[in-house]
């Protein structure tokens, strides 16, 4: 109606309402191709009932997981889960199991990402410490401030070598405890 021009006979308010309803339905029911980014996988409960979503996923090259009952062809999905796709308890059990597996995978990914970031920050801290140590040795090697000369106090920074520098990120925990997490 909005495309063929017959909506011109409607009032402005009616056209606006129809346009808004059309936009809302396209957003909600637009399909997989209309998403902001394509999902890595698609889980279908009843592949016979959701044949349109299955065909769209196949056309877009999305991996499909599906609960398959005896009334459906298991070769239509990439990973078939033999189950009763009509019983709500069966659906709930399998869906909860898949959700738990996804949550576990996301947690492992986050942990490895955090570990990689801490390794990178440790490498940066070690490089910074080596650079500061090299600067301190080159400063001491110049002879300008080495030893206890030039009026430096006996226990001051000139006594016994270069001044100690702190390296950010290598702090010891307060309380002196070395306990584990």
Q: Could you provide a short overview of the structure?
A:
The chain has three helices and three strands, in the order H-E-H-E-E-H. It has 181 residues and is mainly alpha-helical.
Notable features of this structure?
mainly alpha; 8% strand; 3 domains; 3-stranded parallel beta sheet; 3 strands; 3 helices; elongated; 181 residues
Largest sheet, strands/sense/barrel: 3 strands, parallel
Q: What order do the strands of the largest sheet run in, or round the barrel if closed?
A: 1-2-3
List the uncertain runs. Answer: 144-153
**Which value, in Å, is the CA radius of gyration?**
33 Å
Describe the structure.
- The structure is a single chain.
- The protein has helices at 12-29, 51-60, 88-141; strands at 41-44, 63-68, 79-82.
- By secondary structure, the protein is mostly helical.
- The protein folds into three domains: 1-30, no CATH class; 38-85, no CATH class; 87-138.
- The chain has a three-stranded parallel β-sheet, covered by helices on one side.
- It starts with 11 loop residues before the first helix and ends in a 40-residue tail after the last helix.
- The model is unreliable at 144-153 (pLDDT under 50).
List the helices and strands and how they pair.
Layout: H1 12-29, E1 41-44, H2 51-60, E2 63-68, E3 79-82, H3 88-141
Parallel strand pairs: 1-2, 2-3
């Amino acid at each position: 109606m909005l495309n063929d021009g017959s909506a011109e006979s409607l009032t402005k308010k009616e056209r606006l309402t129809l346009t808004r309803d059309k936009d809302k339905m396209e957003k909600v029911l637009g399909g997989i191709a209309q998403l902001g980014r394509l999902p890595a996988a698609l889980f279908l409960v009843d592949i016979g009932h959701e044949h349109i979503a299955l065909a769209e996923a196949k056309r877009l090259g999305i991996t499909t997981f599906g609960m398959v009952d005896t009334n459906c062809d298991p070769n239509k999905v990439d990973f078939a889960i033999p189950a009763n796709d009509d019983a709500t308890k069966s659906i709930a059990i399998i869906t909860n199991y898949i959700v738990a597996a996804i949550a576990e995978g996301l947690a492992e990914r986050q942990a490895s990402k955090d570990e990689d970031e801490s390794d990178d920050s440790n490498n940066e801290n070690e490089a910074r410490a080596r650079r500061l140590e090299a600067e301190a040795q080159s400063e001491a090697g110049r002879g300008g401030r080495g030893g206890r000369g030039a009026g430096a106090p006996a226990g001051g920074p000139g006594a016994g070598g270069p001044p100690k520098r702190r390296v950010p990120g290598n702090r010891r925990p307060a309380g002196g405890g070395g306990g584990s997490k």
